[in-house]
Amino acid sequence: MEEKINEFTKKKRGGFSGKLGFVLAAAGSAVGLGNLWRFPYLTAEYGGGIFILTYIILTLFLGISLLMLEIGIGRYTGKSVIGAFGTLNKKFKWFGYLCVIVPLLVVPYYCVIGGWVLKYGVSFVVGSDGLISNSSSFFNNFIGGTAEPLIYFLIFAFITVLIVIFGVQKGIERMSKILMPTLAIIALFLMVYVFCLKGSGKGVKYTLLPDFSKFSFKTVLGALGQMFYSLSIGMCIMITYGSYMKKDVSIKSSAIQIGVCDSLFAIVASLIIIPSVFACAPTTAEAEGMLASPGPGLMFVQLTEVFGTIKGGRVIGTIFFILVFFAAVTSSVSLVESIVAVLCEGDKMKRSSACAIVFSVILTLGALSSLGFGVLDGVSINIAGNSKSILDMFDLLANNILLPIVGIMTCVIVGWFVDKKIIPKEIGIDKNKTLRGFFNVITKYVAPIIILIVLVSGLLDMFGVLKI
Ligand code: PHE
Predict the structure, then answer these.
(1) Comparing C-alpha atoms, which of 186, 10, 154 is closest to residue 83?
(2) Among 129, 302, 310, 450, which is 20 to 30 Å from 458 by CA?
(3) For 140-201, what is the HEC assignment?
(4) Ligand 1 atom with minimal separation from the 334 CA
């Protein structure tokens, strides 16, 4: 009976045509700015290869289980995030509302940064004045402006919402099937090109060879935080996409493929960025210094300078920003879909009207984030001596506070308040005692405790209480 209900709702809601469509769309969500920009600078900050090794181990043992958990919740309930938690346990319907706030806060500023990427792609094509020769002021002048960043942001948000209007199969799946293979080809091409640059070999070694003396608690914390963000866990996305998945597709192998694909993209991105910086910097210390400047600086300032010095840099810069643009669109689409799915649940609203509502929220909150670097730069808060812009505030609230809370609660609800056979059965591991036991221990104890440590240490670090 229950299966019948699920099949029925799925027919009405639409869904992915098969495994390939689902995996590419979910990998499209996972592969984003986090892989191309955040992962490489964290790799440099936390000592190169040892960070990558830690990241891979955590993804294999924790990340993939959490992916399976979220996809399993989605497919079992066949509902958007609010309906999903309500179905799992009536007492937790309210939690779905909390969950949907996360993508609602993230997508506006994600589109602002997407707009910056678009602007850089265009600037490389037309060869804007000062883009390379004066890269730092070029970037600051651009984001500090009013109309220009707003226009690029608007274009990026419009493209995102337009894809979602076309629906899961005709919009999201079709886009992912085109963009993801293109993304892989561009990334591999850039990596090979960078390998051919003189002096890049040192950077390749730095990226791939783990130096165990650099391993510390901080490496694990950095890798964990990055993993949740990069796999799009705790954002309702995998629950939503899971609800569109066919019953005969294996969740286990899909989750493994998504995790592997995400890690590979992150490593390839590091193998593009780190060696190209090494090829331009005279010494290892200088290369590390350039790489370890977190924030948008690395991608928009330092890397632009690197493109200015390497052979064929303008073409390579253009191709690089096309890569980042594609990766960012497939991620922002998944955020918008998670919100639209909630609004359309049970045919309450037409998809186009839901998209229009989400678009207006994006425009309002995104405009605030964008103007926060210009006319609204007086609006900021000071945390432990660091001034935080409006965009930073949305990011902090969503990624550092709400996302871990949602992660912990998801595990606690499934681990403690839902029949422990339901989700393993949906994932297809119920007959394998070892796997089922492993999965239950991860959901009940390991994951909530680890995420709690990440949450608390992140907050203590941010407020300068404890320097880890
Ligand atoms: N996973 C994306 C990345 O690596 C970030 C993201 C998280 C995007 C959640 C959408 C939703 O960039």
Answers:
(1) 10
(2) 302
(3) HHHHCCCHHHHHHHHHHHHHHHHHHHCCHHHHHHHHHHHHHHHHHHHHHHHHHHHHCCCCHH
(4) 10
**Look-up of token digits 């590091």:** 270
Least Cα distance to 143 among 163, 126, 120, 122 occurs for 120
329 falls within a domain: yes
The residue whose C-alpha atom lies closest to atom 6 belonging to ligand 1 is 232
The CATH number of residue 343's host domain is 1.10.4160
Q: Which range (16-25, 329-338, 340-349) has the least confidence?
A: 340-349
Q: Does some domain include residue 435?
A: yes
Asked if the structure places residue 357 within a domain, the reply is: yes
Inter-CA distances, 319 with 189, 191, 311, Å: 10, 12, 14
97 found inside a domain: yes
Question: Quick one: average pLDDT of 269-288?
Answer: 88
Which residues form the domain of 454? 2-462
Task: Calculate Rg over the CA atoms of the chain.
Answer: 21
Number of independent structural domains in the chain: 1
Per DSSP bridges, beta strands 381-383 and 386-388 are antiparallel
Q: What is the pLDDT of residue 9?
A: 47
Residues framing ligand 1 (Cβ under 6 A): 29-30, 32-35, 229-230, 232, 235, 237, 331, 334-335
DSSP assignments along 66-81, one per residue: HHHHHHHHHHHHTS-H
Mean pLDDT within 158-186:
96
pLDDT at 77 over 90: yes
Continuous segment of H or E residues that includes residue 401: none
**pLDDT above 70: residue 123:** yes
User: What integer pLDDT is reported at residue 67 of this predicted model?
Assistant: 97
CA of 318 to the centre of ligand 1 (A): 22
Question: For residues 412 and 66, what is the distance between their CA atoms, to the nearest angstrom?
Answer: 12
Distance 33 CA to ligand 1 centre (A): 7
Q: How many whole angstroms from 310 Cα to the centroid of ligand 1?
A: 30
